[in-house]
Amino acid sequence: MSNLLEPVVILDTFVQGVGRVEEVSAGLFRVSYYAHQRGFDGGQERVCVAKFIVTADTMVAMANATGAREAARRLIGESHSPMN
Fold first, then answer.
1. Distance (Å, whole) CA 55 – CA 69
2. pLDDT at residue 32, as a whole number
3. Count of H-run helices and E-run strands, the chain
4. In this structure, are residues 30 and 53 in contact, taking their beta carbons and an 8 Å threshold?
5. Mean pLDDT over residues 3-28, rounded?
6. CA 83 → CA 38, 59, 80, distances in Å?
7. What gap in Å lies between CA 4 and CA 60, rounded to an integer?
8. Is the pLDDT of residue 39 over 90?
9. Beta-carbon count within 10 A of 35 CB
10. Which of 21, 49, 50, 80 is deepest in the core (most CB within 10 A)?
């Protein structure tokens, strides 16, 4: 992999999971990421912390690189695993 240029400071965002994967057009997907936070009622709630629009190839590469097998299964149309 080539060096990653960061001409301005980009803040780190803590992500705990993939919240939603939506096909926005042929071959383009909106991927939402979430983190947990304590809700007003004292329980846990999932808060969207980032969204990206990526190509199908990028979606598969991200899923493989991060171990997000659930997102990859959605992309190729397989059913969810009972483990997820």
1. 17
2. 92
3. 2, 3
4. yes
5. 87
6. 25, 21, 8
7. 20
8. no
9. 16
10. 21
Q: In what order do the strands lie in the sheet with 17-25?
A: 17-25, 28-38, 44-55
State how far the Cα of 76 lies from the Cα of 9, in Å rounded to an integer.
Answer: 35
User: What digits encode the pLDDT tens for the residues 48-83?
Assistant: 999 999 999 988 887 777 666 666 667 777 654 444
Q: Compute the distance between CA of residue 65 and CA of residue 8 in angstroms, rounded to an integer.
A: 25
- Asked if residue 15 lies in contact with residue 49, where contact means CB atoms within 8 angstroms, the answer is yes
CA 54/CA 32 separation, integer angstroms: 11
Residue 65, helix vs strand vs coil: helix
Q: Where are the domains of the chain?
A: 17-76
